Amino acid sequence: ANAALGSGVKQPAACEAANLPLIRKSLVAAVDVAAGTRLERSMIEIKRPLGGIAPGDLDRVLGRSLRRALAVDMPITWDDLA
User: Fold this and answer.
1) Is the backbone peptide bond immediately before 12 cis, with ω within 30 degrees of 0?
2) Can you give the pTM of this predicted structure?
């Protein structure tokens, strides 16, 4: 019975690990954005797959400037932010 209860910690099963990058979402450019632009909410979308910053960090991204230009649908990474 104890084994069926598990650890109580919610985490992906080992068999799900290969699919995580495909099902997780990230922040992407909603429009073409020039280098040096301060990011606003209207410039960012949340889409699959994982490849950029997690949606939970959106507030930390808003108002930051871009180091490089981003085309529409390109993932936004921490390296892109000044």
Assistant:
1) no
2) 0.77
